[in-house]
UniProtKB/TrEMBL annotation:
Miscellaneous field: In plastids the F-type ATPase is also known as CF(1)CF(0).
Lineage start: Eukaryota, Viridiplantae, Streptophyta, Embryophyta, Tracheophyta
Protein name: ATP synthase subunit b, chloroplastic
Protein's gene: atpF
Record-annotated membrane-spanning stretches: 26-49
Function summary: Component of the F(0) channel, it forms part of the peripheral stalk, linking F(1) to F(0). F(1)F(0) ATP synthase produces ATP from ADP in the presence of a proton or sodium gradient. F-type ATPases consist of two structural domains, F(1) containing the extramembraneous catalytic core and F(0) containing the membrane proton channel, linked together by a central stalk and a peripheral stalk. During catalysis, ATP synthesis in the catalytic domain of F(1) is coupled via a rotary mechanism of the central stalk subunits to proton translocation.
Length: 184
Protein backbone atom coordinates (compact mmCIF):
# COMPACT_ATOMS: atom_id res chain seq x y z
CA UNK A 1 0.00 0.00 0.00
CA UNK A 2 2.79 2.31 0.76
CA UNK A 3 3.95 1.92 -2.81
CA UNK A 4 0.61 3.14 -4.21
CA UNK A 5 0.37 6.22 -2.06
CA UNK A 6 4.00 7.05 -2.72
CA UNK A 7 3.37 7.03 -6.45
CA UNK A 8 0.71 9.74 -6.03
CA UNK A 9 2.65 11.88 -3.67
CA UNK A 10 6.15 11.44 -5.00
CA UNK A 11 7.02 12.99 -8.30
CA UNK A 12 10.19 10.89 -8.78
CA UNK A 13 8.45 8.46 -10.95
CA UNK A 14 6.91 11.07 -13.18
CA UNK A 15 8.87 11.89 -16.25
CA UNK A 16 9.92 15.47 -16.61
CA UNK A 17 7.82 17.81 -18.72
CA UNK A 18 8.54 17.75 -22.37
CA UNK A 19 9.61 14.18 -22.41
CA UNK A 20 7.46 11.30 -23.33
CA UNK A 21 7.74 7.98 -21.65
CA UNK A 22 5.91 5.01 -20.31
CA UNK A 23 4.92 4.71 -16.73
CA UNK A 24 5.29 1.09 -15.76
CA UNK A 25 3.39 1.42 -12.47
CA UNK A 26 0.06 -0.18 -13.49
CA UNK A 27 -1.89 0.91 -10.42
CA UNK A 28 -0.94 4.54 -10.71
CA UNK A 29 -1.68 4.73 -14.42
CA UNK A 30 -5.07 2.96 -14.07
CA UNK A 31 -6.23 5.39 -11.42
CA UNK A 32 -5.16 8.35 -13.51
CA UNK A 33 -6.83 6.92 -16.59
CA UNK A 34 -9.99 6.21 -14.67
CA UNK A 35 -10.13 9.71 -13.22
CA UNK A 36 -9.61 11.22 -16.70
CA UNK A 37 -12.29 8.99 -18.25
CA UNK A 38 -14.71 9.80 -15.43
CA UNK A 39 -14.04 13.50 -15.76
CA UNK A 40 -14.66 13.38 -19.55
CA UNK A 41 -17.78 11.29 -19.07
CA UNK A 42 -19.14 13.66 -16.44
CA UNK A 43 -18.34 16.73 -18.50
CA UNK A 44 -19.69 15.50 -21.83
CA UNK A 45 -22.17 12.87 -20.67
CA UNK A 46 -23.89 15.13 -18.18
CA UNK A 47 -26.39 16.46 -20.77
CA UNK A 48 -27.07 13.06 -22.30
CA UNK A 49 -27.47 11.49 -18.88
CA UNK A 50 -29.77 14.33 -17.81
CA UNK A 51 -31.90 13.85 -20.96
CA UNK A 52 -32.07 10.08 -20.39
CA UNK A 53 -33.03 10.58 -16.77
CA UNK A 54 -35.64 13.22 -17.72
CA UNK A 55 -37.14 10.87 -20.34
CA UNK A 56 -37.17 8.03 -17.82
CA UNK A 57 -38.74 10.32 -15.22
CA UNK A 58 -41.47 11.37 -17.72
CA UNK A 59 -42.20 7.72 -18.62
CA UNK A 60 -42.40 6.79 -14.94
CA UNK A 61 -44.74 9.75 -14.22
CA UNK A 62 -46.85 8.87 -17.24
CA UNK A 63 -47.04 5.24 -16.11
CA UNK A 64 -48.02 6.39 -12.61
CA UNK A 65 -50.76 8.66 -14.03
CA UNK A 66 -52.04 5.82 -16.23
CA UNK A 67 -51.94 3.46 -13.28
CA UNK A 68 -53.90 5.96 -11.16
CA UNK A 69 -56.45 6.39 -13.94
CA UNK A 70 -56.78 2.61 -14.34
CA UNK A 71 -57.08 2.26 -10.56
CA UNK A 72 -59.90 4.82 -10.47
CA UNK A 73 -61.67 3.06 -13.34
CA UNK A 74 -61.23 -0.28 -11.57
CA UNK A 75 -62.68 1.24 -8.38
CA UNK A 76 -65.66 2.57 -10.37
CA UNK A 77 -66.21 -0.81 -12.00
CA UNK A 78 -65.92 -2.48 -8.62
CA UNK A 79 -68.56 -0.15 -7.17
CA UNK A 80 -70.82 -0.76 -10.16
CA UNK A 81 -70.32 -4.51 -9.76
CA UNK A 82 -71.12 -4.27 -6.04
CA UNK A 83 -74.26 -2.27 -6.84
CA UNK A 84 -75.31 -4.85 -9.44
CA UNK A 85 -74.56 -7.62 -6.95
CA UNK A 86 -76.76 -5.95 -4.32
CA UNK A 87 -79.57 -5.57 -6.88
CA UNK A 88 -79.24 -9.19 -7.95
CA UNK A 89 -79.24 -10.35 -4.33
CA UNK A 90 -82.39 -8.31 -3.67
CA UNK A 91 -84.04 -9.74 -6.78
CA UNK A 92 -82.96 -13.25 -5.77
CA UNK A 93 -84.50 -12.71 -2.32
CA UNK A 94 -87.69 -11.44 -3.95
CA UNK A 95 -87.77 -14.43 -6.28
CA UNK A 96 -87.14 -16.74 -3.36
CA UNK A 97 -89.93 -15.14 -1.29
CA UNK A 98 -92.26 -14.99 -4.30
CA UNK A 99 -91.34 -18.55 -5.17
CA UNK A 100 -92.17 -19.75 -1.67
CA UNK A 101 -95.45 -17.85 -1.67
CA UNK A 102 -96.19 -19.17 -5.17
CA UNK A 103 -95.47 -22.70 -3.98
CA UNK A 104 -97.74 -22.20 -0.96
CA UNK A 105 -100.50 -20.77 -3.18
CA UNK A 106 -100.17 -23.68 -5.61
CA UNK A 107 -100.22 -26.08 -2.68
CA UNK A 108 -103.42 -24.51 -1.33
CA UNK A 109 -104.96 -24.53 -4.82
CA UNK A 110 -104.04 -28.19 -5.27
CA UNK A 111 -105.49 -29.10 -1.87
CA UNK A 112 -108.68 -27.16 -2.63
CA UNK A 113 -108.96 -28.77 -6.06
CA UNK A 114 -108.46 -32.21 -4.48
CA UNK A 115 -111.20 -31.51 -1.92
CA UNK A 116 -113.50 -30.31 -4.68
CA UNK A 117 -112.76 -33.45 -6.72
CA UNK A 118 -113.41 -35.63 -3.68
CA UNK A 119 -116.67 -33.83 -3.01
CA UNK A 120 -117.69 -34.16 -6.66
CA UNK A 121 -116.82 -37.88 -6.60
CA UNK A 122 -118.78 -38.30 -3.36
CA UNK A 123 -121.79 -36.58 -4.96
CA UNK A 124 -121.41 -38.73 -8.07
CA UNK A 125 -121.20 -41.85 -5.88
CA UNK A 126 -124.33 -40.81 -3.97
CA UNK A 127 -126.18 -40.05 -7.22
CA UNK A 128 -125.09 -43.40 -8.65
CA UNK A 129 -126.24 -45.20 -5.51
CA UNK A 130 -129.56 -43.36 -5.60
CA UNK A 131 -129.95 -44.16 -9.30
CA UNK A 132 -129.15 -47.83 -8.70
CA UNK A 133 -131.59 -47.92 -5.75
CA UNK A 134 -134.32 -46.37 -7.90
CA UNK A 135 -133.49 -48.79 -10.69
CA UNK A 136 -133.65 -51.73 -8.30
CA UNK A 137 -136.92 -50.44 -6.77
CA UNK A 138 -138.40 -49.98 -10.26
CA UNK A 139 -137.30 -53.48 -11.26
CA UNK A 140 -138.84 -54.91 -8.08
CA UNK A 141 -142.05 -52.89 -8.69
CA UNK A 142 -142.17 -54.04 -12.29
CA UNK A 143 -141.61 -57.64 -11.25
CA UNK A 144 -144.25 -57.38 -8.52
CA UNK A 145 -146.63 -55.69 -10.97
CA UNK A 146 -145.99 -58.39 -13.57
CA UNK A 147 -146.55 -61.10 -11.01
CA UNK A 148 -149.71 -59.37 -9.72
CA UNK A 149 -150.92 -58.88 -13.27
CA UNK A 150 -150.25 -62.48 -14.11
CA UNK A 151 -152.03 -63.52 -10.94
CA UNK A 152 -154.97 -61.22 -11.72
CA UNK A 153 -155.10 -62.43 -15.30
CA UNK A 154 -154.99 -65.99 -14.09
CA UNK A 155 -157.81 -65.27 -11.65
CA UNK A 156 -159.82 -63.41 -14.28
CA UNK A 157 -159.30 -66.09 -16.84
CA UNK A 158 -160.55 -68.66 -14.39
CA UNK A 159 -163.51 -66.54 -13.21
CA UNK A 160 -164.60 -64.80 -16.36
CA UNK A 161 -166.23 -66.18 -19.34
CA UNK A 162 -165.36 -65.09 -22.81
CA UNK A 163 -168.13 -62.54 -23.22
CA UNK A 164 -167.22 -60.72 -20.01
CA UNK A 165 -163.65 -60.93 -21.00
CA UNK A 166 -164.28 -59.21 -24.35
CA UNK A 167 -166.24 -56.38 -22.66
CA UNK A 168 -163.43 -55.68 -20.18
CA UNK A 169 -160.87 -55.65 -22.98
CA UNK A 170 -163.01 -53.22 -25.02
CA UNK A 171 -163.45 -50.95 -22.01
CA UNK A 172 -159.71 -50.93 -21.35
CA UNK A 173 -158.97 -50.18 -25.01
CA UNK A 174 -161.42 -47.27 -24.86
CA UNK A 175 -159.77 -45.93 -21.72
CA UNK A 176 -156.34 -46.18 -23.34
CA UNK A 177 -157.61 -44.33 -26.44
CA UNK A 178 -159.01 -41.53 -24.27
CA UNK A 179 -155.74 -41.22 -22.36
CA UNK A 180 -153.83 -41.11 -25.64
CA UNK A 181 -156.05 -38.32 -27.01
CA UNK A 182 -155.55 -36.18 -23.90
CA UNK A 183 -151.77 -36.53 -24.03
CA UNK A 184 -151.59 -35.58 -27.72
Amino acid sequence: MKNITDSFVSLDHWPPAGSFGFNTDILATNLINLSVVLGVLIFFGKGVLKDLLDNRKQRILSTIRNSEKLREEAIEQLEKARTRLRKVEIEADEFRVNGYSEIEREKRNLINATYENLERLENYKNETLLFEQQKAINQVRQRVFQQALQGALGTLNNCLNSELHLRIISANIGMLGAVKETTD
